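Appendix C reproduces, verbatim, an entry submitted by the partner laboratory led by Prof. M.T., so that reviewers can inspect both the input and the predicted structure.
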Amino acid sequence: MSLLGTLFGIKKENSDNIEVLNREAFADAIMVKDVQLVDVRTASEYGGGHIKNANNIDFFNPSNFESSFNKFDKQKPIYLYCRSGARSRKAAKKLINLGFSKVYDLKGGYMQWG
């Protein structure tokens, strides 16, 4: 932790490998071709509306979660979102532990998208 972080209690998520982006920055980032974009909500939530071209991998299905993410390129950035940001934050930490090099999380989740 940096000196300022120590003084003010500021802590980064799992080092610099996870970055939380606001809606505008997230929207700009996912406009590139072949982006790895994943909605970690349930299939029912996904069916009720999602970001265009997002893959759906349910965070609450642990056996499918890991095997599904193993199909992605761990060296390319991956972009996550959920309903409010809590699940995607937990998912981001799991992905770092699975070997992903850079994970971006949508601040406030899908609730902030519309």
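Helices lie at 3-8, 23-29, 43-47, 62-69, 86-97. Additional entries are available on request from the coordinating office.
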